[in-house]
Amino acid sequence: MSIASQYYPNEPTEPVVKTETIPGPASRAGIESLNKVFDARPVYFIADYEKSDGNYIADVDGNVLLDAYCQIASVPLGYNNPALLEAAKSPEMIRAIIERPAIGNFPGKDLEGIIKKVLKAAPKGQDHVWSGLSGADANELAFKAAFMWYQQKKRGSFNAAFTQEENESTMKNQAPGSPDLAVLSFQRAFHGRLFASASVTASKPVHKLDLPSFKWPKAEFPSYKYPLEDHVEENKAEDERTLKIVEDLIKTWHIPIAALIIEPIQSEGGDNHASSEFFQGLRDITSKYGVVFIVDEVQTGLGATGKLWAHEHFNITPPPDLVTFSKKFQSAGYFFNDETFIPNVAYRQFNTWCGDPARMIIAGAIAEEVLKHDLVSKTKEVGDYLYSELEKVAKEYPKYIQNLRGKNRATFIAWDLEDSATRNTLLSKLKLNGANVGGCAEVSVRLRPSLTFEKKHADLLIKILTKTLSEL
C-alpha cells in the first residue's frame, strides 16, 4: 500500500469543480466579508480545510482541487495528515500552545527533546539550531549571527569583550559599535519582506517598494540555456562569469561584505537553477575572504528536490555556515555547526519566545514521518516520472512549455510561457479543470506538491494540464 493510501484512505480519486468560476460565489462572498477586517485582495479562494484531504484542497463552494501548489510549498505531508493530527493533540503541544513559554529564559523540561527531533532532519554537517518565527525572520536572525561572528573574528577573539567606545557608539547607531557591513545577495532572489531580508530580495518591486533599504550589493545569478545537456560549454562559461562578479564585489565593495546569502534554487524569482560547480565556487570564494556563507532553504528544504536539503545536491565542502529553513518544516530558524556562531554574550541573539515550541513539535513530527517512510526517495522517483511526462507535453505544446527545468530535482519543477497574461490565464484555467498550480516571476509556472504526491497524482496532473493547454 502506498504511503498516500495509508495516510489518506478516503482521499478523492479526482477533482470536483462545481462552479463556473474560481473563486465561486461562496468564496467571493467570503472574500468580500473578510476584506472588511483583513486585506483579502490576494486571496484565490476561501478554503475549507476540514474537507481538504491528502493532496486535495477543498473550497467553500464545494470545489475539490488536486493541489500541486500546497500553500506556496508549505504543506509537507498533505492535508489532515493523521501523524500530525496526533502530534497536535499531544500533551506537550497543549502545554506549548496555552503556556507559550519564553524558552530563552524559561524552557520547559521537554524542550531539549523537541529540539533533538528537529535536528534529526538537519542538513549534513549541521548539529545546532536557532529557532525563529518565519522564513524572513530566519534569514534576518542568520544575518545577525553572521554580523556578530564577523565582528568577533575582527576583534581577534570570539570571547573578546566590547570596548567602551563600542558600547557608547552603538547607542547612537554609529560605528564602531554599529559597523557598516553588507550582505551580498543575487538578482532575482527572494529572502523575505522584512527590512534586512527585503534589502537582499530582488524578485519583484512590490515586495519592497517604499521600504528604506540597506544599500547592499547584488551579484548575478547564472542564467542557463536549456536543455542543459545541449549547452554545457555556454553554461560553464556563465558559471565562470557570475563567479567573477561575486569575487569582484567582495574585493571592491565600499564596505566589508560579512555574509553571502543564496537560494539553492531561486524560487519566487522564477525557479532559476545553478550548478554544483557554481555553488562550490561560492563556497571557495567565501572561505577565501572570510565571508559567512548562508544558504536559504526556506522553500527548497525538506525533501521536495530529491534530497532532504537542496544544497546537498552540490556536495559543498566545507558545508555552508548557516542554513535557514521554514515552509515545509512548519517551523523556522537556522542550522549551523560552528559553535563560534553562538554569540559571545547572552541576550545578543534573543527575543521573548525564541521561536515557537508548538511549531517545533510539528516540525519534529514531520521529520519523523519523512525519515520513517523515506519520503525523499519516493518524491525523487515521482518527480523523475513527472518530469519525463512533462517533456512529452512540452513537445506537443512548445509554445506553452518553454525552458522546462527541474530535471533530477524531484517535484521541484517549473517552466516558462511567452508572457505573463498567458501564464495567468493558464493558472486560472487549470483551477477550473481541477488543479491548483502556482506561478513565480513574470512568466513561470512552478509545481510544489506535497511529499505524498504519487504517480497517480502526477498522471492526473498531466491529464489536466494537457486538457487545459488544448483549450488555450
Automatic annotation (TrEMBL):
<dbReference type="InterPro" id="IPR004631">
    <property type="entry name" value="4NH2But_aminotransferase_euk"/>
</dbReference>
<keyword id="KW-0032">Aminotransferase</keyword>
<protein>
    <recommendedName>
        <fullName>4-aminobutyrate aminotransferase</fullName>
        <ecNumber>2.6.1.19</ecNumber>
    </recommendedName>
</protein>
<comment type="similarity">
    <text>Belongs to the class-III pyridoxal-phosphate-dependent aminotransferase family.</text>
</comment>
<dbReference type="GO" id="GO:0005739">
    <property type="term" value="C:mitochondrion"/>
</dbReference>
<dbReference type="InterPro" id="IPR015422">
    <property type="entry name" value="PyrdxlP-dep_Trfase_small"/>
</dbReference>
<keyword id="KW-0663">Pyridoxal phosphate</keyword>
<dbReference type="GO" id="GO:0034386">
    <property type="term" value="F:4-aminobutyrate:2-oxoglutarate transaminase activity"/>
</dbReference>
<feature type="region of interest" description="Disordered">
    <location>
        <begin position="1"/>
        <end position="21"/>
    </location>
</feature>
<dbReference type="InterPro" id="IPR049704">
    <property type="entry name" value="Aminotrans_3_PPA_site"/>
</dbReference>
<dbReference type="Pfam" id="PF00202">
    <property type="entry name" value="Aminotran_3"/>
</dbReference>
<dbReference type="GO" id="GO:0009450">
    <property type="term" value="P:gamma-aminobutyric acid catabolic process"/>
</dbReference>
<dbReference type="InterPro" id="IPR015421">
    <property type="entry name" value="PyrdxlP-dep_Trfase_major"/>
</dbReference>
<comment type="subunit">
    <text>Homodimer and homotetramer.</text>
</comment>
<dbReference type="InterPro" id="IPR015424">
    <property type="entry name" value="PyrdxlP-dep_Trfase"/>
</dbReference>
<keyword id="KW-0808">Transferase</keyword>
<dbReference type="GO" id="GO:0030170">
    <property type="term" value="F:pyridoxal phosphate binding"/>
</dbReference>
<dbReference type="InterPro" id="IPR005814">
    <property type="entry name" value="Aminotrans_3"/>
</dbReference>
